[in-house]
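Appendix B, record 7
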Amino acid sequence: MADREGCVAMLVVKIGGVEGLGIEPLCADVAHLIRNGQQVVLVHGGSHQTNVISEKLGKPPRFVTSVSGHVSRYTDRETLEMFAMVTAGQINKLLVERLQRLGVNAVGLSGPDGRLLVGQRKSTLKIMENGKRKVLHGEWSGVIERVNVPLLRLLLDQGYTPVVAPLAISHGGEMINVDGDRAAAAVAAALRAEALVLLSNVPGLLRDFPDESTLIHRIGRGEVKAYLPYAQGRMKKKLLGASEALEGGVGRVILGDGRIEAPLSQALAGRGTVLQ
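Structure tokens (predicted):
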């Protein structure tokens, strides 16, 4: 379990690592909220850019479906190091640069830094492929079990805005890949955040994907499982992360649209799918 002692009134934001998201409007909105006294932790993905780089380097990404139906990247050691290069390097520092230009004193981190995110390495994956169960070995991923809350609070209390890449460190000191949405949920629960906003390239959970007119506006705390059949692809992980955040004490979770102007302000005003 994450360290959840004490309480910090704040916002945790996850920006997806997919194509089509508006980084400039997001950063401008983060700066606006911070100027108005809001504390923010920004967690980001990097899947799209990692896919682009891995294709160029001759190692196309491999996505697999777990026996529970969740889609994830198969992460061998080479893929892990490529993901770290792109996500904790290029993407993280570009976000920090843009926030600094807007007057936000952002600091880039990933889970291994100061043991910010600690979890158990999952060395094998049980997957479904062509209707058959298979076991993949040599996996370098895991699930977060502990968040270094004192480190985050130290930064926040000194006026820094943490920008976190979704990597973690195992109990044995091995770098591992972790899901960005669930990482954001773990951070939000550990800090007892007022809200967690998960931004992606759709307006929220759609009853009939990809028809955006079928947006589901509200989901009650105990209704998440009932809505899982509507979740397509990565949205399943977002709903899982949202459920974990609510169970961990987060006030509300919003699945928001990262393509629009002022995406955070609009999400906080109720635009998107609100879980509360």
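Remarks on this record: The chain has one domain: 11-275. The helical segments are 23-35, 47-56, 77-101, 149-157, 180-190, 224-227, 235-247, 263-268.
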